[in-house]
Amino acid sequence: MKSIIKTEKLCKSFSSGGLQQHVLKNLDLEIYEGDFTIIMGASGAGKSTLLYTLSGMDKPTLGKITFNEKTITKMSIDKLAYFRRKNCGFVFQQTYLIDSMSVLDNILVSGLLVNKNRKEVTKKAKELLKKVDIDEKLWKKFPTQLSGGEAQRVGIARALINNPKLVFADEPTGALNSKTGLDVLNTLTEFNNNGQSIVMVTHDIKSARRGNRIIYLKDGEVAGVCNLGKYIPNDKERHQKLSDFLVKMGW
Length: 251
Description:
Rossmann fold
């Protein structure tokens, strides 16, 4: 399997009240092309910090990150921002859509940062909106006029507009009810089945089942890794393997 991200002795610390809080501790790990990688762990284990550090949204205190065969840990802020735009897509618990822009324009504004050809970007944005099942009658609506699930699926389309090597998702179903959360998971799974690499932080076992590889963090370190193989709905043996792994990890 081809590695998209590789870390070496990755550390992240914060100062709090004059004391150093070590959130990530000497992490060596790889994220592979085509995988739906899940990051799990108890609250405070370092899940979101790891996600932001891997994506270049935050800089590590020590260690090295290689992303798509480039060392990103020594890039300047401007170069790192450009690298992220071209290589990363982001889906968060809150969609962070721009309320003063239409659904379509929210996607265009991200695409035009990388590709100045408005015609090409518009065509791609419309194709993505159709793929995430957003009806054409909603394209000119504002984000506040959408349901939570619709807004999150628009967020997924926005994350994919620049053909990212990797999509980072941080608790994308955390603010949704079970039905709309399922719709979002189905959308992410469909894109992964078509080759999109995804890294998702979650504390929800139903969401974790969508992954083929689970990385479990404990106190800033990798406590275990579980390889589940391709997601198959209602695969009881696969689901039991994940449950047994999480019990072993103390989840």
